[in-house]
């Protein structure tokens, strides 16, 4: 396969920062407004492409406290019916604060415990949900870890469903800012239960009782971000002694969806640091990243077909087939200083026979060193093989014409 030259003039070949799925800004290259973040680990993620728009130690594993519960919630929604009845075990009832206060042998509807989990961050509700869905906390943690790997989160290790500081034989309960943002991206965009996840996490207050109606409970949403910025979609707070204050949240603005994840964002008495960092990162995303419309397409390009029948049917001429890429508009979320470069490659020649629609190469679009889009180059028609039988037939035609 012959590599074609960079296509000049189609798109400008400059990249001043970032790459899809990689680090957009190192701390030393951080924009002025993001140089003084409180969080030890922070990420701003494009929820459409999964691209890291800004990162600060975004791949360093750290404890994540109750931000864990976004994974607990989405797995429960995907693997159980909300109307199922959850029985309370002694282990669930004995979980430390923050807790709903469930008691051993009580019964609750799963949907009610999900509101308790996400609005008030109750640790006992998390264990009750995990035991109901998977049979045990350990089995549920295995589900969480499998899901994390499926999502591409290779630096995440779940031990508990509630995020309390813990470790097992495989390591500490921890994640990275990048992985946590990817999990939130899945919860609000990728999961078949995304609408329900958003509905639960956006609810401001919720009341319920146990199945027998003997005890009443009220929950209020502690995600202050919902009232902090226009377009706020969802989020989850967290705190433990090891993790410090943590947060993961999402915002939608002008067709763009941003996810922010923060780990180790201060310790008491600095509860407000996470809101300051979240606002800075979200504002940076909205002010600097906008969708740009780009186009693909390739036409009036031909490659030789060896031993193929030429279109005019002449024995002494070479055969060619047109290759093409359909014209298509697509969008990429970019800063003003970022541009896409286009790189094409296809085979120099083909051996007959050739089928219509046969893939012969590709055109790839790069942001930095990362491919953000790839389109196939295909043949526009079939070309049959020039066989000995066909050549004899053509010679026969010539003699017939000469005789006439």
Automatic annotation (TrEMBL):
One of its GO terms (molecular function) is carboxypeptidase activity. It is an enzyme of class 3 (hydrolase). Keywords: Carboxypeptidase, Cell shape, Cell wall biogenesis/degradation, Hydrolase, Peptidoglycan synthesis, Protease, Signal. Residues 336-383 form the Peptidase S11 D-Ala-D-Ala carboxypeptidase A C-terminal domain. Its EC number is 3.4.16.4. It holds the Pfam family Peptidase_S11. Residues 36-256 form the Peptidase S11 D-alanyl-D-alanine carboxypeptidase A N-terminal domain. It catalyses: Preferential cleavage: (Ac)2-L-Lys-D-Ala-|-D-Ala. Also transpeptidation of peptidyl-alanyl moieties that are N-acyl substituents of D-alanine. Pathway: Cell wall biogenesis; peptidoglycan biosynthesis. InterPro entries: Beta-lactam/transpept-like, Peniciliin-bd_prot_C_sf, Peptidase_S11, Peptidase_S11_C, Peptidase_S11_C_sf, Peptidase_S11_N. Gene3D superfamilies: D-Ala-D-Ala carboxypeptidase, C-terminal domain (2.60.410.10), DD-peptidase/beta-lactamase superfamily (3.40.710.10). Belongs to the peptidase S11 family. Removes C-terminal D-alanyl residues from sugar-peptide cell wall precursors. This is serine-type D-Ala-D-Ala carboxypeptidase. It comes from Dorea acetigenes.
């Amino acid at each position: 396969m012959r590599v074609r030259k960079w296509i000049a003039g189609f798109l400008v070949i400059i990249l001043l920062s970032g790459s899809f799925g990689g680090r957009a800004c190192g701390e030393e290259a951080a924009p002025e407004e993001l140089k003084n973040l409180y969080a030890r680990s922070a990420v701003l993620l494009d929820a459409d492409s999964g691209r890291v728009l800004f990162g600060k130690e975004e791949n360093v594993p750290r404890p994540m406290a109750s931000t864990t519960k976004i994974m607990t919630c989405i797995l429960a929604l995907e693997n159980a019916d909300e109307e199922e009845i959850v029985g309370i075990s002694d282990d669930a009832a004995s979980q430390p604060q923050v807790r709903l206060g469930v008691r051993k042998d009580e019964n609750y509807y799963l949907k009610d415990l999900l509101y308790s989990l996400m609005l008030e961050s109750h640790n006992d509700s998390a264990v009750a949900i995990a035991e109901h869905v998977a049979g045990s906390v350990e089995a549920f943690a295995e589900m969480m870890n499998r899901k994390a790997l499926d999502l591409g989160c290779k630096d995440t290790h779940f031990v508990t469903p509630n995020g309390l500081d813990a470790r097992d034989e495989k390591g500490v309960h921890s994640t990275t800012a990048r992985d946590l943002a990817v999990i939130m991206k899945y919860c609000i965009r990728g999961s078949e239960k995304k609408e329900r996840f958003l509905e639960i996490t956006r609810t401001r207050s919720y009341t319920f009782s146990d199945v027998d109606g003997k005890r009443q409970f009220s929950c209020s949403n502690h995600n202050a971000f919902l009232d902090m910025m226009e377009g706020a979609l969802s989020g989850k707070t967290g705190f433990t002694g090891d993790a410090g204050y943590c947060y993961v949240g999402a915002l939608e603005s002008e067709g763009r969806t941003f996810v922010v994840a923060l780990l180790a964002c201060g310790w008491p008495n600095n509860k407000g640091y996470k809101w300051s960092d979240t606002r800075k990162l979200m504002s940076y995303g909205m002010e600097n990243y906008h969708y740009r419309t780009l186009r693909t397409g390739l036409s009036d390009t031909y490659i030789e077909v060896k031993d193929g029948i030429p279109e005019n049917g002449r024995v002494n001429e070479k055969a060619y087939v047109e290759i093409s890429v359909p014209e298509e508009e697509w969008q990429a979320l970019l800063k003003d200083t970022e541009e896409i470069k286009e790189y094409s490659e296809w085979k120099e020649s083909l051996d007959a026979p050739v089928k219509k629609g046969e893939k012969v190469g590709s055109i790839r679009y790069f942001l930095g060193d990362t491919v953000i889009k790839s389109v196939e180059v295909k043949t526009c028609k079939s070309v049959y093989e020039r066989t000995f039988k066909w050549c004899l037939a053509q010679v026969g035609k010539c003699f017939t014409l000469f005789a006439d």
